[in-house]
Amino acid sequence: MICRNKPEAYLQLLMTIARDELGIESFDATGEAGEEFRMCRVEDIGRALERAYDMGLMVGHTVTRAECAQGQRA
């Protein structure tokens, strides 16, 4: 059985990565016509993506271990 967390659970983590790595304070568009453009260094984008990927691996590993432990108890 695969358990899926609500996407909202990850928004705080993604916001933290965006704030730390890219200087983005909100995912809400605040510019004219609801659009905002921001210049980001490629290095910063790469670091943010790597950090998000690493966090995804950790969450996946944690969920898999919990499911295996639960399966062993059953």
Structural features, described:
This is DUF6900 domain-containing protein. It holds the Pfam family DUF6900. There is one protein chain. The chain is mainly α and about 70 residues long. It has a domain at about 5-20 and about 40-74. The chain is built from two helices and no strands. It has helices at about 10-20, 40-74. The protein starts with 7 loop residues before the first helix and ends with a helix. The model has no long low-confidence stretch (mean pLDDT about 80).
- Structural class from helices and strands? mainly alpha
Low-confidence stretches: none
Q: What is the molecular shape?
A: elongated
| H-E order | HH
Spatial extent as radius of gyration: 17 Å
Put simply, the count of helices is 2
Describe the biggest sheet? none
**Strand fraction:** under 5%
Number of strands: 0
What is the end-to-end distance? 13 Å
Helix content: 55-70%
**Rounded average pLDDT:** 81
Describe the structure in brief.
The protein has helices spanning 8-22, 42-73. The chain is mainly alpha-helical. It has a domain at 6-20 and 41-74.
Could you give the topology of this structure?
Blueprint: H1 8-22, H2 42-73
Helix pairs in contact: 1-2
